[in-house]
Amino acid sequence: MSDPFQVTIPMVDDSSGDIPSARLRAAVEAFHEPLLQLSLGGAKAIRRAEVLRNRAIVALELGFPTGGYAPSLEPLLLSHLAAAGIALPLDLTLSSRIAPHAVQRQLKPLAGISNIVAVASGKGGVGKSTVAVNLALAWAAQGARVGILDADIYGPSQPIMLGLEGQRPQTLDNKRIVPLTAHGIVAMSIGFLIDPKQPMVWRGPMVTQALTQLLADTDWGQLDYLVVDMPPGTGDIQLTLAQRVPVAGAVIVTTPQDIALADARKGLAMFEKVNVPVLGVIENMSLHVCNNCGHIEHLFGAGGGARMAAEYGVELLGELPLDARIRAETDGGRPTVVAAPESAHAQPYLDAARRAAAALARRARDRSSVFPKIVVEES
Fold it and tell me: Which domain holds residue 208?
């Protein structure tokens, strides 16, 4: 899958004469890609780097969705090339190749789904579901094939957030469920299958069975990412899901105050215990910007997410605003990334999604398809 972006900025050629393509390629190989946190040569990301008619033609293939990334990357690469003595107009093309990444040792990745990413929180009320749906929609907007599984059996909220409330999925041969589609992603939730006015009075084993069945029996198609909106907390249900669902990475959502951070630490520790890599921490409701005067205030404290990320050696993926428009857009079935993609309050979601995808791209890849199956037969 590719999502090309070509950016051309005219520059005045230097007077050093023709620059050989080998020199350009060496310079591009040495460029340190900020999200992957390694050189383009080390990432094996260069598909083309040559000087053609006194222009630098560069094509890169990155391990995360590249839609909308060229305007951010292009000036950094131009600056790097200029420092290397290569002052040429740049034609930059980006594409993406999202590979499957390793999951828990005792589990195998699901067919057709490259990566399952769990979005979790230690407690309810921190905006986890809002973050999960905007994360999924941001990846889709950036060019990936994305699905979302609403794993919160007791309080499914994705049907409302995606504008799918009251709709029912169809089945294939009474065996496979066809997920619903909204805003370019596919979605499955227990909320599609039950009366939303009736409470789910189920014990833990019934919940975990229902969720694993929803995951296995849904015809997801081919996905780069499946976002799992986890139930809040770190009890038996969450632990069982973390042990049964092949997860490539987890994102922990918290708010800045100490009580939320204490529970978020427990959630992070749970994933570490079951060998699920934590991609990073997202601090929600980080700051409030007054709609009238623009005054910025940290209503729930400041810097908590950054301190937690540093404590556990993971990345702070983003600090998201507390904004009434986010609530209104999500309640209206058009989350922020879809309703106002160019707005200032949508940009932190898009940035956090790209950082999370890049953090996953840095992880070990799934190599199970490389090795042949070994069959032992009696002679």
Answer: 113-361
